[in-house]
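dumping the sequnces here before i forget
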Amino acid sequence: MIELEGVTKIFRPRHGDPVRALDDVTLAVKEKEFVSLVGPSGCGKSTLLKLVAGLVLATSGTVRVRGREVREPYPDAGFVFQSAVLLPWRTVLDNVLFSIEMLGRPARAHRGQAVALLELAGLAGFEEKYPGELSGGMQQRVAICRALVHDPGLLLMDEPFGALDAMTREEMSLELLRIWDERRKTILFVTHSIPEAILLSDRVVVMTPRPGRLARVLEIDLPRPRRVEMEFDDRFRRYSEEIRSLIAIRSAGAAARRA
Amino acid sequence: MRDRLVGLLLPVGVLVGTLVVWEIVWRVFNVPRFVVPLPSGILVEGWQWRGYLLYHGWVTLYETLGGFALSIVVGTPLAIMLVYSTTLRRALYPLLVVTQAIPKVAIAPVLLLLLGAGEISKVVIAFLVSFFPIVVDTATGLAATPPELLDLSRSYRASAARTFIKVRFPMALPFFFSGLKVAVTLAVIGAVVGEFVGSDKGLGYVIVSATSYWKSNLAFAAMLVLAAMAVGLFALVELCERLVCPWYTVAREDAEPAAE
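..and the predicted 3d for all of it:
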């Protein structure tokens, strides 16, 4: 569904040197696949998401989604960010329908879909509440519903649980898997957390910083549905160690090159 | 509710206490009344001149409101232009700062010369004093839209106008209102400064003429009306803020996190 071919992105700030955020990235993501991008800060994970969304254009190389080259944003993608960024003056339901309104479609026709999604996300009965009345975890669920309400084929998530506490985070991961089970989408999921990436994904893409490169792509061969207890599984532990060592070696190498 | 009652009673109590002490000290030390009058004398004479104060208060009020309205009408679009156009921002912002560096009291006589001693000159001075905070605060608010929301709007290919109406402007409303609150009290000052410089109407005129006849009771009463007017206008803007963006005032008042 998504094909990146030799994608390089160089940012040229008005002051200072150009920054090579991504360097020669080639990656293919299949339809309905759950792929995580892991790596330290500055490895271009978020830039990669924006490239796929068409919010940022590649300096060289091509980004294709469903065979079409991405040159501008398109409505077939939903976005979830680290902070929920809900609109505080809108009710939960109207926040979900925000996507529909921004797309210029009739909100009323999608009301049923929005209510169903909120129910799926465990927010039945909260439709008329305001974001200020919800906890961080609940707000992020609303943001996920907002990203799904127009039924996009692709869900882009930029550290969606990064601002939540550890307990809520784990709960949200399982929640996301449950929602994904009901509404199969292609998901690109950026995270700092190695266990989170393994628990959720079909494949984990390990990236290294400055310039952002793909270090390795790991197939996660664990049965679904995934459960938290799998963290104690030997395979889980091996994946975890492998990713950790990849990041450590490459970062040390990068540090040595800079020195 | 109880908290709000205490919040109201405390400052009133302090005020009344101060007035009582003032009255007692002045009586004990026999301070000349024409220099600083007694609180009781101000109230009595203020009541005697109520019609006169009301008339001149009305003049100052509409000069103030005229200037305030003008600063909203000019300041808000100006703020929008400054945020959306880099060129305009670079061209106008330094000039705006320069206009603010000139003391308004210094412009007042010149403006009176230009526009005459009537109400128009006071409206213009009130405007000049009060539009700057509206521009700065509204522009700050518009620029503070979370970048994620702008990305989101762009990913839906929403037009700039739709993004402005549905996201940026409502997001900036709390900033807009804090600009209005500063502006409205400044507008009162602007109108009075204009009246000081030259007029035959308004509370500024009352204060100048009363003091020149040693009628300090009346001058103080006029100041009292002026203060009440400024506080009233401020409260009115705050009420509008509550009505227009309740989510903001509610969040500010009970900063308790919601339960899971």
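Residues 7 and 61 of chain A are 4 Å apart (CA to CA).
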